[in-house]
TrEMBL record:
This is Uncharacterized protein. Keywords: Membrane, Transmembrane, Transmembrane helix. The chain crosses the membrane at residues 7-25, 37-55. The keyword Transmembrane applies. It comes from the Bacteria.
Length: 136
């Protein structure tokens, strides 16, 4: 939930801030409260610009594409994405080896393109499909 994200971010940032202040000791050890307020302010600013909402939504869409391709091709790929200035620039699909079900590269491309167009709300400028083939 987006309402819990500021508290999650604070739980990540505050221990880091405390760790750095305790390492310096002396004057800096008294800045824990101000560092906590600064972290809270930064978290609220980031959540105000809906950056994390877009990121969370994109991750869910990428997971849906991955599950869809696993059903069709028999191999679950890694699906990543790149955003630039609020627009989806690329979706990257990486398979570990070739898909288990015998499909041509053209068919894999068609299935991947259809899945990305179905699940991602924004239209990607490019679709990158790659295969990792390990040395034997």
């Amino acid at each position: 939930n987006s309402t819990l994200m500021p508290f999650l971010m604070l739980s990540i940032f505050c221990p880091v801030l405390r760790l750095t202040t305790y390492n310096f000791g002396g004057f800096f050890s008294t800045l824990n409260f101000s560092n906590t307020l600064l972290a809270l302010f930064l978290c609220l600013c980031l959540f105000g610009c809906s950056l994390f909402g877009v990121l969370q939504e994109s991750m869910q869409q990428a997971d849906a594409v991955s599950q869809d391709l696993e059903k069709v091709l028999g191999t679950k790929p890694f699906v990543g994405f790149n955003w630039n200035n609020g627009s989806l620039t690329s979706v990257n699909i990486q398979f570990q080896g070739f898909p288990q079900k015998e499909k041509s590269l053209e068919k894999i491309g068609e299935v991947a393109k259809k899945s990305v167009m179905t699940h991602f709300k924004s239209k990607a400028e490019q679709l990158v499909i790659s295969f990792v083939i390990k040395k034997q």
